[in-house]
Amino acid sequence: STVVVAIDGVPSAIFSLRDELRPEAQAVVSLLQDKMKVTTHMITGDNPSTAESVATALNISPENVVSEALPWGKIERVRELKSRNHVVAFIGDGINDAPAIAEADVGIALGAGTHIAMATASVVLVNSNLEDALIAIDIAKKAFWKVRVNFFWALCYNVLALPIAAGALYPATHAKLPPIVAASMMTLSSIFVIGNSLLLRRYRPPHVYNSGGGIEEDFP
């Protein structure tokens, strides 16, 4: 942003101001695009030159940059992406971001942001560190994997156990499943599902940076 200083109506100085990028911003965007295969967009209320400068620093494609966006313009962009069958996550911290956060499939607010932004978000990054967004995506993927494993186990268990419990083997083998055995099997199945889910308590966030300060090559 350019500022003109005038003294007694006479322009005396011109200087520019700009917000510095967050220290972790470049690493986070790089990991999102290169490692996690997430397409990154930038929607900002800043002027085009500022938006272009930031996008270049973050290696965001120019066609994925929207500048001078008002709150409703941000909503329209989110809706446009959703209409193309994209799953959209929106990260913001201001009042102007709140409508887009609410409209996105996953709304993410920074903990240092406004109360209205946090109130409309699905996820709040308490530490206001963008790296936590990567961790949120990673733990969500692991939790979803646990859900799929539990459903697969339940499907297999019921497909095999229910016919036996109903007496499907009795005509051929006269084998019966005593109620106490059936109850025990159901209990063991439930224990497996609960135990598998509780393994998430052992979750450890992945490292974004390696010992040399570079981006961790093995990041999920």
Automatic annotation (TrEMBL):
GO terms for cellular component: membrane. Signal peptide: none annotated. The chain crosses the membrane at residues 151-173, 179-200. The keyword Magnesium does not apply. One of its GO terms (molecular function) is metal ion binding. Keywords: Membrane, Metal-binding, Transmembrane, Transmembrane helix. NCBIfam families: ATPase_P-type (TIGR01494). This is Uncharacterized protein. The lineage of its organism: Eukaryota, Rhodophyta, Stylonematophyceae, Stylonematales, Stylonemataceae.
